[in-house]
């Protein structure tokens, strides 16, 4: 199953599972991803899940802009309809989302990396737990 992670300054603040045929994004309070901001249209965009018989029934994910005022962007490009790929960055208004296809993800996205101190004073790095 895939998820869309809402980011704020690079930090994940919300996760939305793509566990139904459509996920609506907009300023309408009934939207699946509700964004209370005037730069977002009431019905801004939709993410659709389609089963592809040619890929063994594996789902494919598409995002479509619903003729919004300020458009929808994927990886910095304005789109009308776009097939989502693992790690695509989506922008709706001032809001950023990352699309994660767990079938293609490497490792556990919820796993926390360990901070290690290097031999150089004041320099730190991250390392996955073993």
Plain-language structure description:
- The chain is mainly β and about 130 residues long.
- About 0% of the residues lie in helices and about 50% in strands.
- It is built from no helices and 13 strands.
- It has strands spanning about 1-10, 10-15, 20-25, 35, 45-50, 60-65, 70-75, 75-80, 80-85, 90, 95-100, 115, 125.
- Strands 2-1-11-10-7-8 form a six-stranded antiparallel sheet, with no helix packed on it. The chain has a five-stranded mixed sheet with strand order 4-3-5-6-9, with no helix packed on it.
- A hairpin with a 2-residue loop joins strand 10 (about 90) and strand 11 (about 95-100).
- The chain is globular, with a radius of gyration of 17 Å.
- The chain starts with a strand and ends with a strand.
- The mean pLDDT is about 90.
Task: Please write out the topology.
Elements: E1 2-8, E2 11-17, E3 22-26, E4 33-34, E5 45-51, E6 59-65, E7 72-74, E8 77-79, E9 81-83, E10 89-92, E11 95-101, E12 114-117, E13 124-127
Parallel strand pairs: 3-4
Antiparallel strand pairs: 1-2, 1-11, 3-5, 5-6, 6-9, 7-8, 7-10, 10-11, 12-13
Could you provide a short overview of the structure?
By secondary structure, the chain is mainly β. The chain is built from no helices and 13 strands.
- The biggest beta sheet, please? 6 strands, antiparallel
Tell me, rounded to a whole number, the average pLDDT. Answer: 88
- Describe the global form: globular
Radius of gyration (CA) equals 17 Å
Distance between the termini: 25 Å
Q: Enumerate the spans where pLDDT stays under 50 for 5 or more consecutive residues.
A: none
What's the helical proportion of residues? under 10%
Number of helices: 0
Strands of the biggest beta sheet: in what spatial order?
2-1-11-10-7-8
Per DSSP E runs of 2 or more residues, the count of β-strands stands at: 13
> What is the H/E string?
EEEEEEEEEEEEE
Q: Work out the strand percent.
A: over 45%
Structural class: mainly beta
């Amino acid at each position: 199953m895939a998820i869309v992670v809402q980011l704020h300054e690079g930090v994940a603040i919300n996760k939305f599972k793509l566990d139904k045929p459509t996920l609506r994004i907009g300023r309408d309070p009934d939207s699946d991803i509700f964004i209370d901001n005037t730069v977002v249209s009431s019905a801004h965009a939709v993410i659709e899940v389609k089963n592809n018989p040619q890929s063994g029934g594996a789902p494919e994910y598409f995002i479509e802009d619903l003729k919004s005022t300020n458009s929808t962007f994927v990886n910095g490009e304005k789109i009308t309809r776009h097939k989502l790929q693992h790690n695509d960055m989506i922008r709706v208004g001032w809001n950023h989302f990352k699309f994660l296809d767990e079938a293609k993800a490497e490792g556990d996205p919820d796993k926390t990396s360990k901070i290690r101190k290097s031999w150089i004073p004041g320099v730190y790095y991250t390392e996955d737990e073993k």
